[in-house]
Amino acid sequence: MRIDERDNIEVDLDTGHKVALRDIKKGESVIKYGFPIGHATEDIKKGNAVHSHNLKTNLKDVVEYSYTPKNFKIEPVDCNRTFQGFVRGDGRVGIRNDVWIINTVGCVNRVADRLAKMTSAESFPHPFGCSQLGDDMLVTQKILKGMVNHPNAGGVLVLGLGCENNNMEVFCKILGDVNPDRVKYLNAQDSPDELEEGARMIGELQKYADSFKRQEVPVSKLTVGLKCGGSDGYSGITANPLVGRFSDRLIACGGSTVLTEVPEMFGAETLLMERCENREVFDKTVRLINNFKEYFKRHNQVIYENPSPGNKAGGITTLEEKSLGCVQKGGKSAVVDVLDIGEPVTRTGLNLLNGPGNDIVATTNLTASGAHLILFTTGRGTPVGAPVPTVKIASNSRVYESKRRWIDFNAGQLLEGKSMDEVDKQLFDYILRVASGEQTRNEINGYKEISIFKDGIIL
């Protein structure tokens, strides 16, 4: 509580919201995390609240960037860590051994669901695969290809209808060569009883998956997706930098991380560009940022139309503020590659992935690019989960305690006397347990879904 000097009224300052540490003049930049998060739209007195009523973004349209690389030294860590994973025939490693049903088209969603209930398989309904054109269809195919090839799936039934644009013959050309023991195909129109035939095939796939047993593998085999949901004023202070520490530690041990949500890089993109390991990666990062801004403009949308209402309620005012907090999930490691939607991780280190910030689309994109699990920070709480283990990390203890059915880890400890080193070790140990089979809340609850990015025409 405080007395507002202008109106002489009592004002509540919600948890996670900002106050001015000094007088700020109208038009002056407001600094947080050491960088501008916008400018003051009026004079702000020391101790006054700073939010959307007196702070506005500085973001503009597409801009030009120059390559000014900086070297960041990552502290050496103990890399003698392992987890219990499933080593596939091609040498890749999975941390789960599920049988998945992947639909070529939304028309068979309910068939897939019935098959999942009849067996031990898991299905992931989506509405696409037909009546799409060009690159829009290709994105659907690339996402589904990434799902089919995911190492967490010990076996996959590709389920089609038969008449769709993304029919089995077309999709198989996109998919390429696969192990016939691991991947089987079924067109519902071609079978007298698709449920009986599908259940038989899933039984064969389950038998094949059961031939794999967990064995000790080095932590360098892990690929981890980095994602944040509804943020609050603490996200950039606790959960996101904690995940950044994890990312640096894993990369130092030879592993890979993937940072996505391109619109939530706007305003902080130069921090990532400075860390691009060479000019080629820098140029790809520039295209990643500017192409997504052009996507906004094609649809006549304001580029800085963010944060969401939940973000604002949690104390986030401008997109720069959210972005400066969000990119901290990428730690301080060099950026080694930039991936388009559906492209797999091929280089160890920190990868940037094209795609929006929408929670289900982003977790789907991370899954399709090969993330074994996803670290999902939240200042608001959410039950959503990907097909892979989705570790929810609360930015504050209130969310952690109130949503224990959803949240896996409490970064709010950092506000209560625990050191970053201590909590970082806790998180790393926990992730290795998850990689070895300990279930996350989204797995326990059965909260696993996909959503495919769409930017095209439906016939």
Descriptive tags:
single chain; 459 residues; Archaeosine Trna-guanine Transglycosylase, Chain: A, domain 4; Ribose 5-phosphate Isomerase B, Chain: A; 7-stranded parallel beta sheet; 4-stranded parallel beta sheet; 13 helices; 19% strand
Mean pLDDT: 90
Choose one word for the global shape: globular
Radius of gyration based on Cα positions: 23 Å
User: Largest beta sheet: what is the strand line-up?
Assistant: 17-18-16-15-19-20-21
Give a count of the beta strands, DSSP E runs of length 2 or more.
Answer: 21
Return the structural class. alpha/beta
Low-confidence stretches: 1-11
Please give a quick description of this structure.
The protein is α/β, with parallel strands linked by helices. It has 13 helices and 21 strands. The protein folds into three domains: about 1-55, Roll (Archaeosine Trna-guanine Transglycosylase, Chain: A, domain 4); about 100-210, Ribose 5-phosphate Isomerase B, Chain: A (3-Layer(aba) Sandwich), CATH 3.40.1400; about 220-445.
